Amino acid sequence: MSARKFAADKLLWETLGRWKRSSPELDRIQFLKTVPFFDRLSNRQLKTVSDIMFERRYDSDESIFEEGQPGAALFLILNGKIAIEICRETSTTRLAVLESGAFFGEMALLDDTPRSANARALEPTRTLALYRNDLNDLVHRDAKAACQIYRSLAGTIGDRLRLTNELVQTKTPADMA
Amino acid sequence: MSNGQDFEEKERERKVRRTVFYLIFAGLVLIVAGFLTWKLSGLILPTIVGALLAFVFRPVKDRFRIRWLPHELQVLCSFAAIGVVLFFAFNTLRKHIPDEEQKLEFKVRLKYKLNDRYRQLVAKLPERKSNAVTPLIEKEVGPLMDKVNQALALDPKERDLFLKYAAGYNGKPPIENKFVDYFWANQKTGKYVIPEKTLAGAAQPAAPVAAAPAQAPPASEGASLENKLSAWMLAPLIFVFLGFDNGQIRRFFISLVPNRYFELSLTVLDELDDAIGRYLRGTLLECFLVGLALTVGLVLLGIPLGIAVAIGVVSGLLNAIPFLGTVIALVIGVGYALIAENVTPLIPGLNPNDLALYVLILVVIVHVLDDVVFQPFVLGSAANVHPLVVVIAIISGSLIMGLWGMLFAIPTVVVVKTAVATFFKELKDYRII
Lengths: 177, 433
Prior knowledge:
CATH class of chain A: Mainly Beta
Structural class of chain A: alpha+beta
Shape of chain A: elongated
Largest sheet of chain A: 4 strands, antiparallel
Number of strands of chain A: 8
Number of strands of chain B: 0
Order of helices and strands of chain B: HHHHHHHHHHHHHHHHH
Number of helices of chain A: 6
Strand content of chain A: 15-25%
Strand order of the largest sheet of chain A: 1-8-3-6
Number of helices of chain B: 17
Structural class of chain B: mainly alpha
Distance between the termini of chain B: 37 Å
Radius of gyration of chain B: 29 Å
CATH architecture of chain A: Sandwich
Oligomer: heterodimer
Number of domains of chain A: 1
Helix content of chain A: 40-55%
Strand content of chain B: under 5%
Helix content of chain B: over 70%
Order of helices and strands of chain A: HHHEEEEEEEEHHH
Radius of gyration of chain A: 21 Å
């Protein structure tokens, strides 16, 4: 094989490799790997989960969901910032600001109970949404992957419950009143 | 003007531009869709049938999920399984679809047997009552019999063909002598109702029933049939390509939905999919059960298995048309019972001469079974449509698209009803209205 042909082949394979490495699908799987919620899943399972997720783009100050609406999906921030807020008659309380890799609205994966807070994009944001019924279907198609996700969900809810219990225990009766 | 105000002004202008753009785009899409629907109306039905089949058989495809097998191969396996089942079903059915000779033979037998039964009925009437009842029956049933005779009469072309088949034609064995005798007897059948003019004095003999003049097929009939066939080729193609879909179509449509309605549209689509799927698959199962019950009943009445299966399949499929499906099943079943000969019922004590009556009772029993057992258990409240709406929908369907319209009338009503109910419920839940 001539040196020229070898160089051309090498260039072709490098280009193909780069194109393959930078495909949105692979990027998404690479991203999911970094999210603790999905850290127990294998590459193949991550691909299955990635296939059922919806990518959504939000402008700055655009609402993702509002308090009181029935929950249907968990959201995962690909990039951007999200504010979780509770609006009362006279004031708005910001509970958290979430950034890339964080997730919110996970209770919607269990049932359609109303959202407990508002979620609003603070800057142009890309999210991945996992719809509850798609996860339910995944139980039949890839039970192991679905099981791992539910396990992570149970862990997250357990952590929050523990935190709430600790918070309640540290409060004095006067605070409670 | 400050930078902030400038930005807000630009954003407002952008919003107006976006709204105008969306409106113009939606208008153009509607115009193009309307034009295409008008021009390609022949493709609508095959598309709907293909899409419905893909939708109904989706659970079969999902059952075939094997993790290590590529999706395309899994779909092909499912289609192969469905194809094999459909091939055997249609092959069985095709064997019992009468060919040209059998059609002629059936017509001759049916006409002969009906007239024979009618004459027996009139002759059997008791002597003392004959004065009162016989004219009444002749007045009421006579005209009907004349119409039936006219419908079953062979035209000159068919008569020639029957005589050719009677002597053995086209490589087929000659028709049984008994049926040739029926044919000659049918030629002597006169009118039961004599026209008033004839009564008045014009001594015309009761002529055999005049056959309707055979109409020459229009020149474009072949081309039209070819067009129809090529349009129907679309149905399996749509079935296959929708089968290959792994949620991409849904994702595409969801991607077009504004963020505000994202979760709402997912929920609405899912609930619609669930409700319509349950209804359609339930209807299919109900049709299967009705067909099975009829087949078993007909076999017990002594009708040969092949014929019983063919009648069961046709009646089961047509059961999807409320009311009319039962009537058609009754007509097919009783029609066959009238011409059936040498039938030995498997149930002891039944008189083979009363087969038509037993078939009538069987159809009624199956209809009651369908209403009381199959529908409540299989469909539940999925098809909770008012009977008046059912009747109006069937009539409207038949006016718009004939038999297909009747078949699709109730599923369409159920789809629209479910869609509207779900959409409004979710719009309220999401506080949009």
